Amino acid sequence: MYNTRLDGLTEYPFQRLNALLAGIEPGGAPLVMSIGEPQHSPPDLFAKTLAQAPTADWGKYPPTPGTPDYRASVAAWAATRYGLPAGFLDPERHILPVAGSREGLFMAAQLCVPPQKKARQPSVLMPNPFYQVYFGAAVMNGAEPIFVPATKATGFLPDYAAVAPADLARAAMAYLCTPANPQGTVASLDLLKDVISLARKHDFVLVSDECYSEIYDTTAPAGALQACAALGEGLKNVLVFNSLSKRSSVPGLRAGFVAGDAELIAKFQKLRAHGGAVQPIPVLTAAAALWRDEHHVQENRRLYRAKIDDAEQTFGRDFGFYRPAGGFFLWLDVGDGEAATKKLWREAGVKVLPGGYLARAADNDSRGNPGSAYIRVALVHDRQRTADALMRMKHTLSSLSS
Ligand SMILES: Cc1ncc(COP(=O)(O)O)c(C=O)c1O
Predict the structure, then answer these.
(1) Helix 101-112 to helix 132-140 angle, to the nearest 10 degrees?
(2) Domains, the chain, with CATH or none
(3) Which of 19, 38, 86, 311 shows its CA 20 to 30 Å from the CA of 382?
């Protein structure tokens, strides 16, 4: 006996990648650029603060809402980052810690998807391609995922206003990823305002995944909290997720937050008291110190930018290369993502991810899987190794069609 909804999940992309590359030897010093796991060093501040945390704090069960200090650090960071009016974000009513945004993004569907909406199966809107957790969360909570194209033709962002009226009416939530994984696109403040207005009009929850918000090229991306402040009506119908994984290069710390609608946050706290992963108090102490420091984040951005400069030098306009406005992925149009992935591993020793593994061919959509022509390349290693790998990739891909 088990939960048969699990049968609706596909293998996670990295398992599919392992199967695709099984038996193929890497043709060169192997470099894994398939997974978006930041490899830059976290700032010294992190280890120092963690070491200084009182040992006695390990002897306490961490409270579900975290510590007041952690919530205050997040509120102060967000208020400065998004220029929020004083008191707009109340650390006691609008913020909860999450053990990385992934865990919270998944649980958000447990929070927001009712058994039925308008006497029908609820829908969950998501961009296509999408972060796989959105799909798993929708399916495991009995909702129908609605894949909304986020392709070159749509500016690599989903147009939720264009969703069929019947699917919008039964929408329980919509995931938005900005900066987007894998495309690196950033939603403008106006787009965020429009999506929030749409969510309020149709009474669904906008779940804004902003975990790449601090890795950007030239302009700090707008955020849904900022859009809420610009719109009025507080944080109604909105939940924003972010974490330190990318910002501070500590994906192993599992430190993030959810901020938004006070009513939803109160219900989330109730739900999380039953099944949420809580973070140890010393972890929250170290994480708070990271949210309060911007120097290391600036340095982090500089390192990513330098690698994007190198990528631009290497690819020019080949394979549809463009500078991602945010995040650290290249989204390259190679014609056949799986074939290119195999070739890159076999001939260059570079492991990338076929774009088709991050997207889905929507039912009744003759355009097929919108990611299958692409590969996703994570620029997470040091500059030299990344630059070498990009050169090898360019060389290997250039012979793709010959
Ligand atoms: C789009 C997106 N959202 C959320 C996450 C989860 O990150 P974390 O749980 O480390 O905050 C990732 C991780 O790669 C991601 O790419």
Answers:
(1) 30
(2) 4-41+296-398 (3.90.1150.10), 59-293 (3.40.640.10)
(3) 19
